[in-house]
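TICKET: design request
STATUS: open
ATTACHED STRUCTURE:
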């Protein structure tokens, strides 16, 4: 039987089955068995750039799930496991699936879900040609950096995060929305894969969640950049920095200062570009911020 997104019927059924004994379970199991209190996870948002929460059913051990060739974050307990699947902005609406390994060595089972359409804002601009097309030297640099960053984005480590609610890393006005697509001189560019927060150069940036620094560098488009690993394929990226106060391997707690807002890389003014990645897909940071 294929499992999928949790329905209200399934929630009521589990409440009935568990009864009073359900309140002896771990906090995340209690949240499902009760009146759906906040569990600290992003909401079910199965759209391009969103997160799908998929029921994997009960199992004695944590299931191993994959979306394509990327491992998927699975949280929960023996009563109910849930896969949290990041959906790429480029994903087409319609049927999608993840696979779950069979612990007995059989073929993996499919867990299907449907990606709903979502329309993001599009902005058309006319600019000087030299600001759109890269020189051969800059193109070569970008290709080298892209190959390195692919290895960074493939990071999947344990322990897994249990609480996923993130604090805003810097106060300020959101100056560019996630998913915004710009068309320069008729040439479409990739949609905006993060949240831009306007703030003066030098404004401290704080860790949104406990994590470990896995990469720092000065990149062509992103300028001074820090990547944090929060476990289970959940990564965050911070770009255009004026200062980096950490190095790879450093551990951070929520709220720790580790860098500062700047205007490095290909930007027109100081701001923080903040991205959230789940199973190698950039997803909307707002989903992890709660109400």
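STATUS: resolved
RESOLUTION: sequence designed for all positions
ATTACHED SEQUENCE:
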């Amino acid at each position: 039987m294929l499992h999928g997104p949790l329905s209200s019927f399934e929630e009521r059924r589990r409440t009935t089955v568990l009864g009073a004994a359900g309140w002896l379970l771990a906090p995340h199991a209690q949240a499902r068995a009760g009146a759906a209190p906040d569990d600290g996870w992003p909401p079910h948002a199965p759209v391009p750039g969103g997160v799908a929460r998929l029921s994997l059913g009960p199992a004695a051990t944590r299931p191993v799930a994959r979306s394509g060739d990327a491992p998927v974050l699975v949280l929960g307990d023996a009563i109910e496991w849930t896969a949290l699947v990041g959906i790429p902005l480029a994903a087409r609406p319609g049927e999608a699936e993840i696979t779950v390994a069979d612990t007995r060595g059989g073929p993996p089972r499919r867990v299907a879900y449907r990606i709903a359409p979502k329309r993001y804002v599009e902005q058309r601009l006319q600019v000087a040609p030299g600001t759109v097309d890269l020189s051969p030297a800059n193109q070569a640099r970008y290709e080298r950096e892209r190959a390195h960053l692919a290895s960074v984005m493939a990071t999947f480590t344990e322990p897994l995060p249990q609480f996923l609610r993130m604090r805003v890393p810097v106060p300020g006005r959101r100056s560019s929305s996630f998913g915004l697509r710009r068309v320069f001189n008729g040439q479409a560019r990739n949609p905006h894969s993060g949240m831009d927060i306007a703030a003066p150069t030098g404004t401290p940036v704080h860790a949104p969640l406990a994590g470990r620094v896995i990469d720092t560098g000065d990149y062509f488009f992103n300028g001074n950049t820090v990547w944090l690993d929060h476990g289970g394929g959940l990564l965050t990226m911070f770009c255009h920095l004026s200062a980096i106060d950490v190095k790879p391997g450093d551990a951070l707690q929520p709220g720790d200062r580790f860098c500062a807002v700047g205007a490095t890389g290909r930007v027109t003014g100081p701001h923080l570009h903040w991205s959230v990645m789940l199973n190698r897909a950039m997803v909307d940071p707002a989903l992890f911020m709660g109400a």
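CLOSING REMARK: The first helix runs from residue 8 to 18. Confidence is low (pLDDT under 50) at residues 6-37.
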